Amino acid sequence: MKVHFPIRRGVVLDKTVGYVYAVDGVDLSIRSGETYGLVGESGCGKSTLGRAMLKLTEPTAGRVVFDGIDLSSMKGEPLRTMRRRMQMVFQDPLSSLDPRQSVESLLVEGMRAHGLDKGKESSAKRLRELLLAVGLPSTSLRKYPHEFSGGQRQRIGIARALSVEPDLIVADEPVSALDVSVQAQVINLLEDLQTEFGLTYLVIAHDLAVVRHISDRVGVMYLGGLVEEADSDQLYREPLHPYTKALMSAVPVPDPLVEDRRERILLAGDLPSPANPPTGCRFHTRCPWRQETRCDTERPALREIDPGHRVACHYAEDIRAGRIRQHAVEAELVREDWDVVPDDASLAGPASVTETLGP
Ligand SMILES: Nc1ncnc2c1ncn2[C@@H]1O[C@H](COP(=O)(O)OP(=O)(O)OP(=O)(O)O)[C@@H](O)[C@H]1O
């Protein structure tokens, strides 16, 4: 799939002077009942991909197939019916919930739009069930979003998504606006609801720790492309793409008393603009293992290195076997004596993942 946004100039924005290559050739499938975690730095195209999967953003090229049905040319009522089955939970519940609507009205709205409010009594029962499912008191119905804490508001956002009985939920940074102490509660809630209602999740996050806990499989995005994908355990045990390795370097050590023997990876330079991505491998401008000239000119395909473990790097096997490791060490881009501990292991913001320590 591709999603390219035109960059327009001129008095009435009538000239297209270029494109933002937000999603540029991603082939991703999510299995029924699983949680797929999508990670990467801010601006790499995660949200755009999530929105395009729900047809909230029209793809420039490619198809979205949901439950065997091709949504590409679907419009009007058939698309609306399919949309009920695919809901989104947003990062900031305060901006995604209309402050003038009570919780009751917020929850009933979607049910009504999809013909699921079948009479006063059954709607009231359904509302009670929804509140119970997300752990909010029944007195919440008459209240307004600003009367709740951040975590409670996210529960309202989740209840709202659940109200139309979806199969797939795309959760875009569902906990990143919340206090750390509340994050785990919301993640646990999502897990419980998945078991209870047989949901499938796409969880988008810049924080590897969040995704690790909740995901069955994880995909790592860089500048509009998927660079690595594997079962969660496998990816965390043996990241193969240099970018994933760098992200892993930034995850804090779980136990400070355990000696940290992982290699630390320094990425050169800043994240390039998706409006002007590098030729060849998108990651080559920052890669410690860059090999001339193949990496600069030839874009690597995502290929299966081990069963279910796909990597978009020409030299993944060589890096794994340590065959081209020396080059990176000599260039002082990979060091074993790194002693800089990150203040913040998150990957938010345009800053590159540099000089970070990991477990
Ligand atoms: N509607 C739009 N029009 C033009 N450019 C857009 C639009 N939506 C997103 N972009 C650009 O596409 C790129 C990818 O954005 P996207 O929001 O998908 O990234 P992201 O990885 O989800 O980042 P974040 O975590 O900051 O939301 C960015 O450069 C962004 O500025």
Automatic annotation (TrEMBL):
<protein>
    <submittedName>
        <fullName>Dipeptide/oligopeptide/nickel ABC transporter ATP-binding protein</fullName>
    </submittedName>
</protein>
<dbReference type="InterPro" id="IPR003439">
    <property type="entry name" value="ABC_transporter-like_ATP-bd"/>
</dbReference>
<dbReference type="GO" id="GO:0055085">
    <property type="term" value="P:transmembrane transport"/>
</dbReference>
<comment type="similarity">
    <text>Belongs to the ABC transporter superfamily.</text>
</comment>
<feature type="domain" description="ABC transporter">
    <location>
        <begin position="7"/>
        <end position="248"/>
    </location>
</feature>
<dbReference type="InterPro" id="IPR027417">
    <property type="entry name" value="P-loop_NTPase"/>
</dbReference>
<dbReference type="GO" id="GO:0015833">
    <property type="term" value="P:peptide transport"/>
</dbReference>
<keyword id="KW-0547">Nucleotide-binding</keyword>
<dbReference type="InterPro" id="IPR050319">
    <property type="entry name" value="ABC_transp_ATP-bind"/>
</dbReference>
<keyword id="KW-0067">ATP-binding</keyword>
<dbReference type="GO" id="GO:0005524">
    <property type="term" value="F:ATP binding"/>
</dbReference>
<dbReference type="Pfam" id="PF08352">
    <property type="entry name" value="oligo_HPY"/>
</dbReference>
<dbReference type="InterPro" id="IPR017871">
    <property type="entry name" value="ABC_transporter-like_CS"/>
</dbReference>
<dbReference type="Pfam" id="PF00005">
    <property type="entry name" value="ABC_tran"/>
</dbReference>
<dbReference type="GO" id="GO:0016887">
    <property type="term" value="F:ATP hydrolysis activity"/>
</dbReference>
<dbReference type="InterPro" id="IPR003593">
    <property type="entry name" value="AAA+_ATPase"/>
</dbReference>
<keyword id="KW-0813">Transport</keyword>
<dbReference type="InterPro" id="IPR013563">
    <property type="entry name" value="Oligopep_ABC_C"/>
</dbReference>
